[in-house]
Amino acid sequence: MGAALAVLVAASAVMSALAEPVRIGVLAKRGGEVAEARWAPTPAYLTEAIPGRRFEVVPLDFDGIFRAAKDREVAYILANPAIYVEMEARLNASRLATLRNRAGDHALTRFGGILFTRAARTDIRTPGDLRGCSLMAVDRHSLGG
User: Fold this and answer.
1) What is the pLDDT of residue 100?
2) Beta bridge partners of 142
3) CA 9 distance to own-chain centroid
4) What is the C-alpha to C-alpha distance for residues 127 and 47, in angstroms, rounded to an integer?
5) pTM exceeds cut of 0.90
6) 88-143: per-residue pLDDT in tens?
7) Are 93 and 69 within 8 A, CB to CB?
8) Nearest 5 degrees, angle CA 120-CA 121-CA 125?
9) Positive or negative, the Cα torsion across 39, 40, 44, 45?
């Protein structure tokens, strides 16, 4: 009877693990609803493709994405390269894939931002020239806005 109970407990633990969704943290830079709508096909596909596992999207803002990764509230993160680089340095994150965005007929794997200054600021020509200057951005983790 002890062995049967152990098998039942083990089976229950496996079923409980399978019931827990695999949480995919997504940077919701345009809000949670937009992020869920954009990324909904990904967990739907993974749930169908991987038997016994259920996946879900967890929209996160710029601060929440670091907290969720640090506290291991999500198994995977979908974010921009700047956030990934910081997570790699601070949290020992590692990448699995790079998203290729489409722009017309081209697939893009790079992400960029632009800094502009007043024409009279001839002293600012490189990012290093910004030391001691004030700078405005969408978020301290984003130059994409």
Assistant:
1) 76
2) 139
3) 35
4) 44
5) no
6) 999 988 888 777 778 888 887 776 777 788 899 999 988 899 899 888 877 776 66
7) yes
8) 135
9) negative
